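Lecture notes, continued. The same structure-token format from the folding unit now serves as the input rather than the output. Read the line below as a description of shape only.
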């Protein structure tokens, strides 16, 4: 039986996690799989109440006693410096060494895209975002804070090991999944040290994958070209920050953050599964949060736990929800958050009959 830590987190993270858990409940009955879901109270409220973000023991337990971690979202205006999200979310990515942030982007239906004349087969890509280094490591500091002479330093840390393993993971994914091309996105023109390392390693590792085409596109140019020619992209590999930005942009091409799942992985270790979106404070209490990204994330998690048939079934139901307009308003529908979860469960039951 797979043991899964469920961390609803903050804001709409709680609402969408409830729907993902609902769907996990439905598939357990329908497909006869057994999951042990253990809810964890981590997030802004606990931090505000206790001053604790996450303890070393809790982090160790998540790393060793679970097969997967599912997280809704972290982010709350009552914690303006985002300290808890850094400790918990970035903490898990860094301390559990989850170096692959895999973000698949797929267009279900042309009308979901803000792009003109785009077909589902044109937007089908996977972003491999480096998830354990780059400018996210928090190395740096502030000097003369609050004065006119203030200095703020945020170091960009890139190791040969870190760069090589994410690039290798991207090429391996391309080969195993029959993807034709891997695109590196960096800013080697402005940041030659980090970019130079990425480009050298990309060429070296890429040479081992003669069956996979490769090209490098600067991150700014890629932001343009993803909008103009999304069909050119299959697998994109990028340092942490560019991968973060490009994944929101890519999500917009297929209908927005309500349809973008994500996984933070290190082969052989516990995986962290989280929608790409955040806690969306603008949607809290409106019943408009789209739970499909969280439900797709649950499918991604089941696939990684070896339940590919169930993952396929969930993804097909999500696709039918989108095609049939059984969605929240962001995708043009009129359903509330829980009603979308109910619809997916009902559809899964009917499809399984
Ligand atoms: P956000 O992703 O929360 O929201 C961006 C926009 O997308 C908003 O207009 C929002 O309404 C919309 N949106 C997001 N999720 C949606 C959904 N499920 N259905 C419909 N619309 C949705 O990004 P933000 O506003 O920049 O950040 C809010 C907070 O979330 C911040 O504290 C941020 O740090 C945090 N955050 C957390 C995560 C995470 O936990 N993985 C990811 C991104 C942002
Ligand atoms: C994401 C989020 C996080 C990130 C934030 C909340 C730190 O934007 O998961 O994409 O930048 O990685
Ligand atoms: Mn992001």
């Amino acid at each position: 039986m797979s043991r899964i830590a469920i961390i609803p987190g903050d804001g709409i993270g709680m609402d969408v996690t409830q729907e993902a858990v609902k769907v996990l409940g439905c598939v357990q009955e329908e497909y006869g799989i057994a999951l042990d879901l253990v809810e964890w109270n981590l997030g802004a409220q606990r931090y505000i109440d206790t001053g604790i973000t996450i303890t070393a023991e809790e982090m160790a337990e998540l790393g060793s006693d679970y097969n997967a971690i599912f997280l809704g979202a972290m982010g709350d205006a009552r914690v303006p410096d985002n300290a808890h999200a850094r400790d918990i979310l970035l903490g898990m990515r860094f301390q559990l060494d989850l170096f692959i942030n895999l973000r698949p982007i797929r267009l279900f239906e042309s009308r979901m895209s803000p792009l003109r004349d785009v077909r589902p087969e044109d937007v089908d890509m996977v972003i491999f975002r480096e998830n354990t280094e780059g400018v996210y490591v928090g190395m740096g500091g502030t000097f003369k804070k609050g004065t006119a002479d203030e200095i703020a330093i945020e170091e960009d840390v890139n190791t040969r090991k870190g760069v090589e393993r994410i690039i290798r993971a991207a090429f391996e994914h391309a080969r195993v999944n029959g993807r034709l091309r891997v695109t590196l996105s960096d800013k080697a023109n402005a940041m030659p040290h980090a970019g130079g390392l990425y480009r050298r390693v990309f060429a070296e590792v890429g040479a081992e994958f003669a069956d996979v085409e490769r090209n490098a596109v600067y991150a700014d140019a890629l932001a343009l070209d993803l909008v103009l020619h999304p069909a050119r992209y299959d697998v994109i590999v990028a340092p942490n920050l560019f991968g973060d930005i490009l994944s929101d942009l890519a999500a917009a091409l297929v209908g927005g953050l309500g349809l973008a799942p994500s996984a933070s992985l290190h082969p052989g270790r516990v995986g962290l599964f989280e929608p790409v979106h955040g806690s969306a404070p603008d949607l809290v209490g409106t019943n408009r949060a789209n739970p499909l990204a969280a439900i797709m994330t649950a499918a991604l998690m089941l696939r990684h736990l070896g339940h590919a048939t169930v993952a396929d079934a969930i993804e097909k139901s999500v696709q039918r929800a989108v095609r049939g307009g059984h969605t929240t308003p962001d995708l043009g529908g009129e359903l509330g958050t829980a009603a979308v979860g109910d619809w997916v469960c009902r559809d899964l039951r009917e499809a399984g009959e």
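Point for the exam: The first strand starts at residue 2 and ends at 9.
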